[in-house]
Design a protein that fits this description.
18% helix
């Protein structure tokens, strides 16, 4: 009879390891990569969008390409305008970044203590990189530096 590893024990071992590394003063950097495919909605009748030359939600940039202003900050060139998340709740900032099509998110303890951001709702964004308003590719790493609300 062969024993198979129990997932609970493996998960517990990883958790204990992570806590031990944190307790030893080891600095960590957490990168969260979440890629979700938006659910498709079905409608009873097919809909069509107006041609680009008559659309009121598109404009032309310097290269002559159409740039969409549909609220996501994305354009036809694959670049996204990085939203300003400074001062926001860390979880809300992550949600907003994802709503803008930016899924390669990294987070850091802004106090320099190297703490892991376990409960994102307990943290507030104090800086970000790249800067708000910057055009970045959809797969660019966005770093949110946060501190706990109790840090003052």
């Amino acid at each position: 009879m062969t024993k198979t590893p129990r997932p609970l024990m493996a998960g517990l071992a990883l958790t204990v390891f992570a806590l031990a590394m944190t307790a030893c003063g080891t600095t960590t950097k957490t990168t969260t990569v979440i890629k979700e495919v938006p659910a498709q909605t079905t409608t009873s009748a097919p809909t069509t969008k107006a041609p680009a030359d008559t659309a009121t939600d598109a404009s032309s940039d310097d290269s002559g390409s159409l740039v969409s202003d549909e609220g996501t900050g994305s354009s036809s060139s694959g670049k996204v305008t990085v939203p300003n998340e400074v001062g926001k709740n860390h979880q809300a900032a992550q949600d907003d970044m994802q709503a803008h099509g930016l899924y390669n998110l990294s987070e850091e303890d802004a106090t320099g203590q190297g703490r892991m951001l376990i409960l994102d709702r307990n943290w507030k964004v104090v800086s970000q990189s790249p800067a708000p308003g910057t055009k970045a590719s959809e797969d660019a790493t966005i770093t949110l530096r946060s501190k706990k609300y109790t840090d003052g």
